[in-house]
Amino acid sequence: VSYMVGKDRIIFATKEDHETPSSAELVADDPDDPYEEQGLILPNGDINWNCPCLGGMASGPCGEQFKSAFSCFHYSTEEIKGSDCVDQFRAMQECMQKYPDLYPQEDENEEKEKSSKDLEATPLEASAAKEEKGSS
């Protein structure tokens, strides 16, 4: 299943699609694409939504929320830049939480698990080092 969004084609892959070898052909970048070489901010100060540096965030299921939040931040004139954009960023985050496969987030629980695994590994390494010293 695929559909077009602007110049991008959104394709939904099934488990079966992933199990068959890819027949995708890489297409060279269009040297005439006026957005390709511009960077994130265009010469007129507008945001270049086609910039590869955005990693596709401007398209996808939360693209509109991302554009709203990023635009708000970019054009913010508050003393603490972006402090007037809390609602837009909250909406973007809520959207992204609905698509954890597309927008993986570091979960606090994962962080705790990682640090406890690191702690578990340390005593084993320490005792192994003592055994080596003791046997020589």
UniProtKB/TrEMBL annotation:
Q: What is the lineage of its organism?
A: Eukaryota, Metazoa, Chordata, Craniata, Vertebrata
Composition bias, kind Basic and acidic residues: at what positions? 111-120
For this entry, the protein name equals: MIA40 protein
Note the Gene3D superfamilies from the entry.
Answer: 1.10.287.2900
Q: Give the start-end ranges of region Disordered.
A: 100-136
One Gene Ontology cellular component annotation?
mitochondrial intermembrane space
MF terms from GO for this chain are: protein-disulfide reductase activity
Could you tell me the keywords of this UniProt record?
Disulfide bond, Mitochondrion, Oxidoreductase, Protein transport, Redox-active center, Translocation, Transport
- What region holds the CHCH domain? 62-98
Task: List the PANTHER family.
Answer: COILED-COIL-HELIX-COILED-COIL-HELIX DOMAIN CONTAINING 4 (PTHR21622)
Q: Which residues form the signal peptide?
A: none
**Gene name for this UniProt entry:** Chchd4
InterPro entries per record:
CHCH, CHCHD4
